[in-house]
Amino acid sequence: MNIEELTDNFEFLDSWEDKYRYIIDLGSKLEPLPENYKTEEWKVKGCQSQVWLVPEKRGEKLHFYGDSDALIVKGLIAIVLLIYSDKSPAEIKSVAVDNIFAKLGLSEHLSPSRRNGLIAMTEKINYYADIL
Amino acid sequence: MDWIEEIRKDFPVLGQKINGKPNTFLDSGASAQKPLCVINKMMDVYTKEYSNVHRGSYLLSEEITSAYEESRRIVQKFINAESEKEIVFTRNATESINLVAATWGRKFLTKMDEVLISEAEHHANLVPWQMLRDEIGFVLKIFKINDDGSFNWDDFQQNLNGNTKLVSVTGMSNVLGTIFPLKEIIAAAHKVGAKVLVDGCQYVVHQKTDVKDLDCDFFAFSGHKTYGPTGIGVLYGKEKILEAMPPYQFGGDMVNVVTYQSTTFDEPPARFEAGTPAIVQAIGLGEALKYMTNIGMDKITSHENELVDYMHQRLQEVEGVTEVGTAPHKGGVFSIDLKGVHPQDLAFILDKEGIAVRVGHHCAAPLVRRMGYESLARASFGLYTNHEDIDRFIAALQKAKTFF
After folding, report:
1. Which position among A34, A53, B229, B232 has the lowest Cβ density within 10 Å, counted as fewest Cβ atoms?
2. Residues of B near A (CB-CB distance < 8 A)?
3. pLDDT tier at B156 (50, 70, 90 boundaries)?
4. Separation of alpha carbons B352 and B146, rounded Å
5. CA–CA gap between residue A102 and residue A99 (Å, rounded)
6. Residue B360 and residue A48: Cβ atoms within 8 Å?
7. Which residues of B are catalytic?
8. Which residues pair with A62 in a beta bridge?
């Protein structure tokens, strides 16, 4: 699935309940993060749940693994990774994540005052795009 | 119950819709909503009476100085202090405790001494003592609480000895709701010659506070939790003790004679209120305390006790819920774990239902860990909380479970 398909799917979801159920479902299908990466080193700081992010260089592109112990957060991570993973650093830098989240009706989750780790995660992805 | 519905009209924000749902505000333990009388009073001061205090020989300044000092007397009466000189205005309880650590602590604690606190302390009553210990080298002792969150008399006594110079404890835990037996703690501490500081942030909101009867040496609380504004807090200290303490910060309004080379300092409380204080906030706090007094602290306590029983009873209906902190004597603070539902996810869902709770470690990370968790969801009550709030909370817990 790409982000366009995801946006289309979201349009069929009228209530927040359906949206959250779908997000939880996305999280359950997220590519698993190997257990040995669930350490302090790979933790994204500043979250009310535990969030991990691990980059992997694949040729010119960056692949990301992510996980969280909170399931809605995990689903939101799945969306973030759908947006960013397997892209080149230049592509990563050009992503307008705010617009995508606004289209999905999930802007509140990218608000800096929500400490759910998604902002910290997008910042970290951008950081990896700079250094890897 | 009718008076609660009347009271709720004093808090306009409670009538706001949140995500299209009734505002179910269960985060008063973090900060309480403000009644109209407080909001209006502050508006009045800004629109009709504002100027600086303690200086300027003109009418507005005289009037606002007297309103500011009247607020101090309201605080004095509210906690039954002996004298208004024992009431120092600070930013919040955190600053009150830091003030004691920085002034009394630096002057009177040595590396031979011990400071005793409980496992149930907020970071504000833990970290200042850790920092001061690193500086001075005294021993920081932590006495245990019981697994249900209740006060552990045996462990407290085992840790209390002739070297204990300060016992610094919460009056009511912001995570567990436990109300500590302050009078007994203070009497025991005084017996070994220790001073006692009470972090009264949660305690002062929920029942009548009488510092004379408690006989505590210091009592700290925040205005914003007592239905007053942010930016104003209180440190109560016994007059003799405050008199022996050096200033906290230096500047205007706290000095006696200043030359270019030397300065003598004012008496308490002015000695501890350097610079222009939070004037309007202090007056707002006075108004908030009057509001609580007019309702009656006994009435507030019995309403809250009834809600605590009701919440406790209704939580039993929710399968998989663990109430963390079930001390027999507890106030309106409920930290819960819902099996299979991460507190963060729970908060997302509650928010959509218009319910405000706090999730995380509640600025008491060691305590949450000691109870066996990394993160908890906390519902806390105010005087305006009603049975419908609890009903909506319980219904939302049941709903949250269907997602996972």
Report:
1. A34
2. 19, 342-345, 347-349, 352, 359-360, 374-375, 403-404
3. very high
4. 36
5. 5
6. yes
7. 363
8. A57, A87
| Helices of type H across B80-152 | 93-100, 106-108, 127-136
Is the pLDDT reported for residue B1 higher than 60? Answer: no
What CATH code is carried by the domain that includes residue A60?
Answer: 3.90.1010.10
Asked if B39 and B10 count as a contact pair (C-beta separation under 8 A), the reply is no
Could you give the domains of chain B?
A: 2-30+296-401 (3.90.1150.10), 40-294 (3.40.640.10)
A vs B, Cβ pairs < 8 A, gives 42
Which residue out of A30, A47, A53, A72 is catalytically annotated? A47
E strand or H helix that includes residue B156: helix B153-159
Quote the number of domains for chain A: 1
- Cβ density class B328-364: b for 16+ within 10 Å, e for less: eebbbbbbbbbeebbbbbbbbbbbbbbbbbbbbbbbb
- A-chain residues near B348 (CB < 8 A): 20, 72
Which positions in chain A have a beta carbon within 8 angstroms of at least one beta carbon in chain B? Answer: 16-17, 20-21, 24, 47-50, 69-73, 115-116
Q: Is A89 helix (H, G, I), strand (E, B) or coil?
A: helix
pLDDT tens digits, one per residue of B220-239: 999 999 999 999 999 999 99
With CB atoms and an 8 Å threshold, state whether B375 touches A24: no
Question: Exposed (0-12), middle (13-18) or buried (19+): which is B130, by Cβ within 10 Å?
Answer: middle
Give residue-wise pLDDT tens across range B45-104: 999 999 999 877 898 999 999 999 999 999 999 999 999 999 999 999 999 999 999 999
Residues, chain A, total?
Answer: 132
Q: What span, in angstroms and rounded, lies between the C-alpha atoms of B35 and B256?
A: 39
Instruction: Test B344 with A49 for CB contact under 8 angstroms.
Output: yes
Pairing state between β B21-22 and B17-18: antiparallel
A65 Cβ contact list (under 8 Å, min separation 6): A31, A32, A33, A34, A37, A52, A53, A54, A56
Instruction: With beta carbons under 8 A apart, name residues in chain A contacting B19.
Output: 16
Cβ burial of B66 (10 Å; 0-12, 13-18, 19+) is: exposed
Chain A: give the shortest CA distance to residue B398, in Å: 14
pTM of the predicted protein model: 0.94
Chain A contacts of B343, Cβ < 8 Å? 48-49, 70
Which one, of B322, B292, B141, lies nearest residue B225 by Cα? B292
Write out the two tokens for B291.
């509001």
Contact B352 A70 (CB under 8 A): no
Phi, psi of A118 (to 5 degrees): -70, -40
pLDDT digits (tens, 9 = 90+) for B346-355: 999 999 999 9
Average pLDDT score over chain B: 96
Distance CA B44, CA B36 (A): 12
Share of chain A above pLDDT 70, in %: 95
